Amino acid sequence: MxxxxxxNKNLTCLGYQFTANQTHTFDGEPILCxxxxxxxxxxxxxxxxYCSPDMRVFEIEASGIITNAKDDCTKRACSEIRLVKxxxxxxxxxxxxxxxxxxxxxxxxxxxDIMISKIKEPEWAYTWAKNxxxxDIMINRITDSKWAYTWAxxxxxxDIMINxITxxxxxxxWAxxxxxxDIMINHITDSKWAYRWAxxxxxxDIMINxITxxxxxxxWAxxxxxxDIMINHITDSxxxxxxxxxxxxxDIMIDRITxxxxxxxWAxxxxxxDIMIDRITDSxxxxxxxxxxxxxDIMINRITxxxxAYKWAxxxxxVDIMKSRVTETNWIGDxxxxxxxxQII
Length: 345
What we know:
Elements: E1 2-7, E2 12-13, E3 16-17, E4 23-25, E5 37-40, E6 56-66, E7 75-87, H1 89-95, H2 99-108, H3 112-115, H4 122-131, H5 135-138, H6 145-154, H7 158-161, H8 168-177, H9 181-184, H10 191-200, H11 204-207, H12 214-223, H13 227-230, H14 237-246, H15 250-253, H16 260-269, H17 273-276, H18 283-292, H19 296-299, H20 306-315, H21 319-322, H22 329-338
Antiparallel strand pairs: 1-6, 2-3, 4-7, 5-7, 6-7
Helix pairs in contact: 4-6, 6-8, 8-10, 14-16, 16-18, 18-20, 20-22
């Protein structure tokens, strides 16, 4: 596999001495970010790991065992690597298209006149303006609420940035830390930030109408009241359980318990086991119910996942029944280790 790798000027990397046109072999299994020879398949990604005027970069050929890349970087690890040819820093510079990489190159190496045009994302436009300059250029690349708020707080231009605040979270922070509450209040549209605005700033009579999610209806009822209104916004099992346990209205909330987890917890702490038992549908809570409450003759038929088939056999029994339900490789391994005389072949 073709790739690229950066080195110190003496061709060392993490203390290992490399030589051009020679295959280097790692004795062991390469593990990304832990061991083996690392490289990137996108040339510009090497700048994340080495970024200095005296670094050296090579095109490489990776072979042997090669790991997959991870997240938003093309870095991989391999067991065999050969340095094919050296690449100039000018070539590396020309490969850069990502904002963060352009910023790091400008800070550590230079070429700010070239890198400035590659800054497109608001985060790096703000960071460039804060640490390098060119605020007159970068200000136009601030397009989302978070970085508009951050720019206004740390740099200024509140009269421009205020018009870029559209998200509830950053409208809340702007109102709290900068002002303009009469404008920002209209940008509060989701339950979490309506709750926080009401709690920390005020306008409860307005914010109460913006509470639609179960979680924030519960918290509003707990700390600000209006239980007669908020009770109607409790629609999911988790907050129906919390409401019933800590506020009341169990006769209403019981019908809103539909998920296995919260049926189990309701039965454990509030009762109604004869009702909740029918709402246990997944393996995990069938196992927990059998362990902590009982009804094993019923719950045994609800065990379908390998993990809980293994745990049932280990902790409860019915090995002959559970054995056929363990089909995943890792749980077969655990089964064979624990049940050495009744292994899954």
